[in-house]
Amino acid sequence: MNGSAQLGNRTSTVLGRRLGGELLRLRDAAGKTQQQAAQVISATNSKIVKMERGWVPMRDPDIRALCEFYALDDPKATGRLLELAKLDRERRKAKGWWQHSPQAGALSEYVAMEDVATRVQAWQQSLIPGLLQTARYTRSLGVSEGAWEDPDLIERWVAIKQKRQERLLGPNPLQLYAVIWEAALRQLVGGPETMRAQLGHLLDVAQLPNVSLQILPFHAGGHPCMAGAFNIVSFAEAGAVDVVHMDSLGSTVWAEDQTESAVYSAFFDRTARLSLAQVDSVALIDSIRKEL
Predict the structure, then answer these.
(1) Which of 271, 274, 251 lies closest to 263, judged by CA?
(2) What residues have CB less than 8 Å from 62, skipping those under 6 apart?
(3) Which domain holds residue 18?
């Protein structure tokens, strides 16, 4: 599914669908009907339908009232839903920090999800994952793509990538599990000096307690994730469904239901089992770095 869909003058966003899906799950678990939910917030049944399908932005009082009605007694879970609603409203109005640059493009929807996630599993074939890129590496990618001729635009893109990395630090850091194909380590993006620094950065972040890093070596042969790169985004709520994000040259695709996300999770796990253990992955990264 694409990042957003339109029906008349309504817009469904990934964030809106994410929030609506959680409210639907809570309602089903509580055994409540749409009509009962509508009465709680003094609305019509059609509004509950629109909310649960992600077609409309949601007000905090409505979310609090529904969470209480559905007997959600976890303040942190309610708070995360409120944060998701806030991000969705900002996304629709283009006011999130990730919207400050037109270069964010389709990435803005993903960054908004990443902002409220607790864990990301990243599989990459040809690039270093964005959360682990140095500024020089990202800048070199911007130059090599050739899409932006203005250096200022490239710098804004670099700033977005660097800002995202703040999620790896702080008191409640994002848990990152990255599996990277060996080819991404050997591709000389920006030249030997840039790659040497990039590989050194990987060695540093691999020491963080919230970062797991594995390398899939060439000799592993065929594997389940050969079709392309993807990120699996996970959330804190009990029973919350993972969301899968995939970028291609021409589009961004989201897998948002439990069956699809389970397939990607299985692919990721099987590929991770074929990869080197973290200690051996670090040794390979350091060996390639020294070759440069």
Answers:
(1) 271
(2) 41, 43, 51
(3) 4-95
Q: Which two tokens mark 39?
A: 């009465």
Determine the Cα–Cα distance for residues 289 and 280; give it in Å rounded to an integer: 14
Q: What is the mean pLDDT of each run of 10 residues along the chain (292 residues)?
A: 43 73 92 94 92 89 95 90 81 53 58 82 94 94 69 81 89 94 96 97 97 97 91 74 74 74 93 97 98 93
CATH code of the domain containing 113: 3.30.870.10
Tokens of 258: 């439990």
- Enumerate the β-bridge partners of residue 4: 13
**Torsion of Cα atoms, 174 then 180 then 186 then 187, to 10°:** -80
In terms of phi and psi (left: phi > 0; alpha: psi -120 to 50; beta: otherwise), the region of 239 is: left
Q: Are strands 119-124 and 175-181 parallel, antiparallel or unpaired?
A: parallel
Does 110 lie in the same domain as 226?
Answer: yes
3-state secondary structure 172-222: CCCEEEEEEEHHHHHCCCCCHHHHHHHHHHHHHHCCCCCEEEEEECHHHCC
Same-domain check for residues 74 and 125: no
Domain boundary among 95, 112, 133: 95
Phi, psi at residue 216, to the nearest 5°? -90, 110
Q: Do 108 and 178 lie in a common domain? A: yes
Same domain, 186 and 260: yes
